[in-house]
Amino acid sequence: MTRHGELGTALHRWRDRIAPAEAGLPTAGTREAGGLGREELAQLTGLSVDYIVRLEEGRATSPSVQVLTSLARALRLSEDERRHLFLLAGQSPPALGRVPDRVPPTVRRLLGRLTGTPVGVHDAAWNLITWNPLWAALVGDPSGLPGRDRNAVWRHFTGLPTRITQTVEQEARYEAALVADLRAATVHYPTDVRLRFLIGELRRVSSRFVGLWNSHIVGFHDTGIRTVHHPDVGPLTLDCDTLTVPGCDLRISAYSAAPGTDAADKLRLLDVIGTEPMPDRAPDPQRDGMPGGMPGGTQDGKRDGRQGEKSPDRVPGGR
Description:
With 319 residues, this protein is of the alpha+beta class. The chain has helices spanning 3-16, 38-45, 49-56, 65-74, 79-88, 105-113, 133-139, 152-158, 168-188, 193-205, 207-214, 262-273; strands spanning 119-122, 128-131, 164-165, 224-230, 234-245, 250-256. The chain contains twelve helices and six strands. Strands 2-1-6-5-4-3 form a six-stranded antiparallel sheet. A hairpin with a 4-residue loop joins β5 and β6. The radius of gyration is 26 Å and the shape is elongated. Residues 285-318 have low confidence and may be disordered.
Protein backbone atom coordinates (compact mmCIF):
# COMPACT_ATOMS: atom_id res chain seq x y z
CA MET A 1 0.00 0.00 0.00
CA THR A 2 1.31 3.49 -0.84
CA ARG A 3 1.79 6.14 1.80
CA HIS A 4 -1.29 8.02 0.57
CA GLY A 5 -3.30 4.81 0.71
CA GLU A 6 -2.18 4.36 4.31
CA LEU A 7 -3.27 7.94 5.04
CA GLY A 8 -6.75 7.22 3.75
CA THR A 9 -7.02 4.00 5.75
CA ALA A 10 -5.89 5.77 8.93
CA LEU A 11 -8.37 8.62 8.45
CA HIS A 12 -11.21 6.15 7.90
CA ARG A 13 -10.38 4.20 11.04
CA TRP A 14 -10.02 7.32 13.19
CA ARG A 15 -13.34 8.59 11.82
CA ASP A 16 -15.08 5.30 12.60
CA ARG A 17 -14.13 5.32 16.27
CA ILE A 18 -15.75 8.68 17.13
CA ALA A 19 -19.49 8.89 17.70
CA PRO A 20 -21.17 12.12 16.51
CA ALA A 21 -22.34 12.81 20.05
CA GLU A 22 -18.72 12.75 21.27
CA ALA A 23 -17.88 15.42 18.72
CA GLY A 24 -20.81 17.56 19.85
CA LEU A 25 -22.94 16.84 16.78
CA PRO A 26 -26.64 15.97 16.88
CA THR A 27 -27.62 12.45 15.83
CA ALA A 28 -30.61 12.40 13.54
CA GLY A 29 -32.30 9.01 13.67
CA THR A 30 -30.49 5.69 13.80
CA ARG A 31 -27.49 4.93 11.64
CA GLU A 32 -25.92 1.64 10.85
CA ALA A 33 -22.38 2.99 11.24
CA GLY A 34 -21.43 4.27 14.69
CA GLY A 35 -18.61 6.64 13.76
CA LEU A 36 -18.47 10.03 12.12
CA GLY A 37 -19.76 10.26 8.60
CA ARG A 38 -17.79 12.10 5.94
CA GLU A 39 -20.37 14.88 5.96
CA GLU A 40 -19.97 15.27 9.71
CA LEU A 41 -16.17 15.31 9.50
CA ALA A 42 -16.47 17.95 6.77
CA GLN A 43 -18.69 20.01 9.08
CA LEU A 44 -16.16 19.79 11.93
CA THR A 45 -13.13 20.67 9.79
CA GLY A 46 -14.56 23.13 7.30
CA LEU A 47 -13.40 20.92 4.42
CA SER A 48 -15.60 19.78 1.57
CA VAL A 49 -17.02 16.27 1.55
CA ASP A 50 -15.45 15.73 -1.87
CA TYR A 51 -11.99 16.59 -0.50
CA ILE A 52 -12.37 14.15 2.39
CA VAL A 53 -13.42 11.45 -0.07
CA ARG A 54 -10.31 12.17 -2.16
CA LEU A 55 -8.12 12.04 0.95
CA GLU A 56 -9.51 8.66 2.00
CA GLU A 57 -9.16 7.27 -1.52
CA GLY A 58 -5.56 8.46 -1.80
CA ARG A 59 -6.31 10.92 -4.61
CA ALA A 60 -5.50 14.08 -2.60
CA THR A 61 -1.79 13.69 -2.11
CA SER A 62 -0.61 16.99 -0.61
CA PRO A 63 -2.82 18.09 2.30
CA SER A 64 -1.57 21.30 3.89
CA VAL A 65 -0.51 21.75 7.50
CA GLN A 66 -3.76 23.67 8.13
CA VAL A 67 -5.84 20.78 6.75
CA LEU A 68 -3.95 18.21 8.81
CA THR A 69 -4.26 20.33 11.95
CA SER A 70 -8.04 20.58 11.45
CA LEU A 71 -8.33 16.84 10.90
CA ALA A 72 -6.24 16.05 13.98
CA ARG A 73 -8.42 18.33 16.12
CA ALA A 74 -11.72 16.99 14.78
CA LEU A 75 -10.61 13.34 15.09
CA ARG A 76 -9.27 13.94 18.61
CA LEU A 77 -5.90 12.43 17.83
CA SER A 78 -3.27 11.88 20.50
CA GLU A 79 0.19 13.45 20.08
CA ASP A 80 1.54 10.18 18.67
CA GLU A 81 -1.40 9.84 16.27
CA ARG A 82 -1.05 13.48 15.23
CA ARG A 83 2.62 12.92 14.46
CA HIS A 84 1.74 9.79 12.48
CA LEU A 85 -0.89 11.71 10.49
CA PHE A 86 1.64 14.35 9.44
CA LEU A 87 4.22 11.74 8.45
CA LEU A 88 1.68 9.81 6.36
CA ALA A 89 0.81 13.06 4.58
CA GLY A 90 4.48 13.79 3.85
CA GLN A 91 4.66 16.77 6.21
CA SER A 92 7.07 17.43 9.04
CA PRO A 93 5.34 16.85 12.39
CA PRO A 94 4.57 20.13 14.15
CA ALA A 95 6.94 21.16 16.89
CA LEU A 96 5.77 21.10 20.48
CA GLY A 97 5.81 24.19 22.63
CA ARG A 98 7.68 23.08 25.74
CA VAL A 99 10.19 20.42 26.71
CA PRO A 100 8.13 17.67 28.40
CA ASP A 101 9.15 16.77 31.93
CA ARG A 102 6.60 14.08 32.71
CA VAL A 103 8.04 10.69 33.65
CA PRO A 104 5.75 7.88 32.44
CA PRO A 105 4.76 5.15 34.93
CA THR A 106 6.77 2.63 32.90
CA VAL A 107 9.98 4.59 33.47
CA ARG A 108 9.21 4.95 37.19
CA ARG A 109 8.73 1.19 37.40
CA LEU A 110 12.07 0.72 35.65
CA LEU A 111 13.77 2.92 38.24
CA GLY A 112 12.22 0.85 41.01
CA ARG A 113 13.49 -2.39 39.54
CA LEU A 114 17.07 -1.29 38.81
CA THR A 115 18.04 -1.33 42.47
CA GLY A 116 21.65 -2.26 41.77
CA THR A 117 22.17 0.33 39.02
CA PRO A 118 22.55 4.10 39.51
CA VAL A 119 20.00 5.70 37.16
CA GLY A 120 19.13 9.35 36.52
CA VAL A 121 16.39 10.60 34.18
CA HIS A 122 16.81 13.88 32.28
CA ASP A 123 14.48 15.74 29.93
CA ALA A 124 15.43 16.77 26.37
CA ALA A 125 17.25 19.85 27.71
CA TRP A 126 19.23 17.70 30.18
CA ASN A 127 17.41 18.84 33.31
CA LEU A 128 17.59 16.05 35.90
CA ILE A 129 13.98 15.29 36.85
CA THR A 130 14.15 12.02 38.78
CA TRP A 131 16.66 9.43 39.97
CA ASN A 132 16.93 6.30 42.08
CA PRO A 133 18.61 6.09 45.51
CA LEU A 134 21.82 4.53 44.20
CA TRP A 135 22.28 7.42 41.75
CA ALA A 136 22.13 9.84 44.69
CA ALA A 137 24.50 7.66 46.71
CA LEU A 138 27.01 7.55 43.85
CA VAL A 139 27.15 11.13 42.52
CA GLY A 140 25.48 12.97 45.43
CA ASP A 141 21.86 13.76 46.29
CA PRO A 142 20.60 16.52 43.93
CA SER A 143 17.34 17.10 45.82
CA GLY A 144 18.68 20.23 47.55
CA LEU A 145 19.99 21.85 44.37
CA PRO A 146 18.24 24.79 42.67
CA GLY A 147 16.75 24.08 39.25
CA ARG A 148 19.59 25.40 37.10
CA ASP A 149 22.18 23.39 39.02
CA ARG A 150 20.31 20.18 38.15
CA ASN A 151 21.00 20.73 34.46
CA ALA A 152 23.84 18.54 33.20
CA VAL A 153 24.84 20.96 30.43
CA TRP A 154 24.97 23.91 32.81
CA ARG A 155 26.98 21.95 35.40
CA HIS A 156 29.46 20.80 32.79
CA PHE A 157 30.15 24.06 30.98
CA THR A 158 30.18 26.24 34.11
CA GLY A 159 32.52 23.94 36.03
CA LEU A 160 30.28 23.20 38.99
CA PRO A 161 31.70 20.61 41.45
CA THR A 162 31.43 16.98 40.46
CA ARG A 163 32.74 13.60 41.50
CA ILE A 164 33.07 12.50 37.88
CA THR A 165 36.12 12.56 35.60
CA GLN A 166 36.60 11.26 32.09
CA THR A 167 39.37 11.21 29.50
CA VAL A 168 39.93 14.19 27.22
CA GLU A 169 38.57 12.24 24.23
CA GLN A 170 35.49 11.10 26.12
CA GLU A 171 34.83 14.60 27.36
CA ALA A 172 35.00 15.96 23.81
CA ARG A 173 32.44 13.37 22.63
CA TYR A 174 30.26 14.10 25.65
CA GLU A 175 30.30 17.86 24.98
CA ALA A 176 29.46 17.34 21.31
CA ALA A 177 26.49 15.15 22.23
CA LEU A 178 25.18 17.63 24.83
CA VAL A 179 25.36 20.59 22.46
CA ALA A 180 23.77 18.59 19.63
CA ASP A 181 20.95 17.57 21.99
CA LEU A 182 20.27 21.19 22.95
CA ARG A 183 20.22 22.28 19.32
CA ALA A 184 17.75 19.50 18.48
CA ALA A 185 15.60 20.55 21.44
CA THR A 186 15.32 24.10 20.08
CA VAL A 187 13.92 22.65 16.84
CA HIS A 188 11.42 20.34 18.56
CA TYR A 189 10.37 22.88 21.23
CA PRO A 190 10.81 26.29 19.59
CA THR A 191 8.72 28.28 22.07
CA ASP A 192 10.18 26.89 25.30
CA VAL A 193 11.30 30.03 27.14
CA ARG A 194 13.36 28.14 29.76
CA LEU A 195 15.31 26.35 27.03
CA ARG A 196 16.07 29.57 25.16
CA PHE A 197 17.14 31.28 28.39
CA LEU A 198 19.42 28.36 29.30
CA ILE A 199 21.17 28.55 25.92
CA GLY A 200 21.51 32.34 26.21
CA GLU A 201 23.08 32.04 29.67
CA LEU A 202 25.45 29.29 28.49
CA ARG A 203 26.55 31.51 25.61
CA ARG A 204 27.14 34.34 28.07
CA VAL A 205 29.27 32.43 30.59
CA SER A 206 31.08 29.73 28.57
CA SER A 207 33.31 30.44 25.58
CA ARG A 208 33.73 26.68 25.14
CA PHE A 209 29.96 26.30 24.71
CA VAL A 210 29.85 29.24 22.29
CA GLY A 211 32.50 27.66 20.11
CA LEU A 212 30.72 24.31 19.97
CA TRP A 213 27.30 25.92 19.45
CA ASN A 214 28.52 28.10 16.57
CA SER A 215 30.26 25.14 14.93
CA HIS A 216 26.91 23.29 14.55
CA ILE A 217 28.71 20.22 15.84
CA VAL A 218 26.98 16.85 15.49
CA GLY A 219 27.35 14.28 18.25
CA PHE A 220 25.70 11.29 19.88
CA HIS A 221 25.91 9.54 23.23
CA ASP A 222 27.98 6.38 23.26
CA THR A 223 28.97 4.08 26.09
CA GLY A 224 31.62 5.98 28.00
CA ILE A 225 33.89 5.22 30.92
CA ARG A 226 33.54 7.53 33.90
CA THR A 227 35.60 7.59 37.07
CA VAL A 228 33.52 8.58 40.09
CA HIS A 229 35.53 9.74 43.11
CA HIS A 230 33.37 8.91 46.10
CA PRO A 231 34.41 10.36 49.48
CA ASP A 232 33.72 7.12 51.37
CA VAL A 233 34.43 4.20 49.02
CA GLY A 234 37.07 5.85 46.85
CA PRO A 235 37.27 5.84 43.03
CA LEU A 236 34.91 3.70 40.93
CA THR A 237 35.53 3.20 37.20
CA LEU A 238 32.12 2.62 35.62
CA ASP A 239 30.46 2.34 32.23
CA CYS A 240 27.87 5.05 31.50
CA ASP A 241 25.10 4.49 28.95
CA THR A 242 22.50 7.01 27.78
CA LEU A 243 19.15 5.67 26.59
CA THR A 244 16.39 7.71 24.95
CA VAL A 245 12.76 6.95 25.83
CA PRO A 246 10.59 7.03 22.68
CA GLY A 247 7.55 9.27 22.77
CA CYS A 248 8.56 11.45 25.73
CA ASP A 249 12.09 12.56 24.76
CA LEU A 250 13.67 11.56 28.07
CA ARG A 251 17.32 10.63 28.53
CA ILE A 252 18.15 7.86 30.98
CA SER A 253 21.74 7.77 32.21
CA ALA A 254 22.78 4.49 33.83
CA TYR A 255 26.08 3.52 35.44
CA SER A 256 27.20 -0.10 35.61
CA ALA A 257 30.22 -2.21 36.50
CA ALA A 258 31.34 -5.57 35.18
CA PRO A 259 30.56 -8.42 37.62
CA GLY A 260 33.41 -9.36 39.93
CA THR A 261 35.21 -6.04 39.65
CA ASP A 262 36.24 -3.73 42.45
CA ALA A 263 33.74 -1.15 41.16
CA ALA A 264 30.89 -3.69 41.36
CA ASP A 265 31.77 -4.39 45.01
CA LYS A 266 31.81 -0.66 45.76
CA LEU A 267 28.39 -0.16 44.14
CA ARG A 268 26.97 -2.85 46.42
CA LEU A 269 28.55 -1.09 49.38
CA LEU A 270 27.01 2.22 48.32
CA ASP A 271 23.59 0.54 48.41
CA VAL A 272 24.23 0.05 52.11
CA ILE A 273 25.83 3.44 52.83
CA GLY A 274 22.99 5.32 51.17
CA THR A 275 22.55 8.88 50.01
CA GLU A 276 24.87 11.83 50.53
CA PRO A 277 24.42 15.46 49.39
CA MET A 278 25.72 16.60 46.01
CA PRO A 279 29.35 17.73 46.37
CA ASP A 280 29.80 21.40 47.26
CA ARG A 281 33.49 21.23 46.44
CA ALA A 282 35.61 19.48 43.83
CA PRO A 283 37.35 16.21 44.75
CA ASP A 284 40.79 16.51 46.32
CA PRO A 285 43.47 13.93 45.43
CA GLN A 286 44.73 13.55 49.01
CA ARG A 287 41.35 13.72 50.77
CA ASP A 288 39.59 11.32 48.40
CA GLY A 289 42.29 8.69 48.11
CA MET A 290 43.60 9.47 44.63
CA PRO A 291 47.37 8.92 44.56
CA GLY A 292 49.39 10.57 41.81
CA GLY A 293 49.68 7.36 39.78
CA MET A 294 45.92 6.98 39.42
CA PRO A 295 44.18 8.33 36.26
CA GLY A 296 43.48 12.00 36.89
CA GLY A 297 45.45 11.89 40.13
CA THR A 298 47.76 14.83 39.55
CA GLN A 299 47.67 17.29 42.40
CA ASP A 300 48.51 20.50 40.57
CA GLY A 301 45.37 20.57 38.38
CA LYS A 302 47.28 19.72 35.21
CA ARG A 303 46.35 17.04 32.73
CA ASP A 304 48.11 13.72 33.25
CA GLY A 305 49.57 13.10 29.80
CA ARG A 306 50.18 9.41 30.49
CA GLN A 307 46.53 8.69 31.21
CA GLY A 308 44.87 11.38 29.11
CA GLU A 309 42.42 12.23 31.91
CA LYS A 310 41.81 15.60 33.54
CA SER A 311 42.42 16.21 37.18
CA PRO A 312 39.15 16.05 39.10
CA ASP A 313 39.61 19.52 40.58
CA ARG A 314 39.49 21.00 37.09
CA VAL A 315 36.91 18.90 35.30
CA PRO A 316 33.51 20.53 34.67
CA GLY A 317 30.47 18.80 36.12
CA GLY A 318 29.41 15.56 34.49
CA ARG A 319 26.17 13.64 34.35
